[in-house]
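Please discuss these two lines.
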Amino acid sequence: MTDKDRTLNRTERLFALVLLLQNRPNMTSRELAEHFDVSRRTIFRDMRALGEAGVPLTYAEGGGYEILEGYQLPPLMFSAREAATLLIGASFTKLQPDPSLQEDADAVAMKIREVLPDSVREYIDRLQKRIVLDPYWLHAFRARPEEEGRWYDLSEAVARQRQVQMKYLVKSRGEVTQRTVDPLGLVYYTDHWNLIAYDHLREAIRNFRLDHIQNMFVLSKSFEPPEGFDLEEYLEERGRGSQNRRIRLRFAKTAYRWARRDVPAQIEDERETDDHVEITFDFENLDYVAEWLMRYGTDVEVLAPDDLQAAVREKARAVAAQYDDY
């Protein structure tokens, strides 16, 4: 959207004027008036207001306005540490599988970089050349084209309280079902996004993985969340649900440093010995936990329950069976 696609209020226009003159100095009042689709008289008033606000405006010898070098809008004065934090945050967003999130993260990073003082920009450039965030991630989690923008569509549905209709893959049954849901929140688990929503088919609040949604569209019909619903409280209560099983694991310390961040529930107890860490947590899906534990091989031992031990043993045997003929 360009400046002429909508009418800016005066505060927005003053802010945009400063940014424009910092990036394109020596613009005349006529050029500025044409850019913002206002009269030259309005531009003169705006320039006077900026000067009274302390913006160091000058008029260049060759004609046109410019802002003295080194001036930055106070809200955009980032320290090197703050700028590094923001740009690393944008880099993490680029690891998301949704291409639209990746593109917007690039745009945000570019805008942040443009407003940095030269010294901070040079520092950030040196830093970014020496930081790589999971170089294999994008190859493993590249979204299908039809998934692009799904996170944004759902986030808007959550914010505007609009119902969503979708075809959803129930992976455990290999079945695609038609659902109409009231989206209540979005939650990120390790490597994928989940939609928490009231499911009209099941008449209950359910958890839907975004990468299992086959197609979807946001309806114009609005909804009211369940009375008193709070997303964080719901997630905490779900962690204590009646279907949960008490799970006890013993990790080698070297492996637990990495495993701890991926534990799929709140850890209830954590005890260290010389070489191991024993943890206890509650979780309802033992097959999911067994699949997760396979990545740690002999660095983890299931202490309880017995059926989780059996599930891990079955998966390990299935892997070993693939190599019986070698």
Q: What stands out?
A: The chain is about 40% helix and 25% strand. The first strand starts at residue 57 and ends at 59.
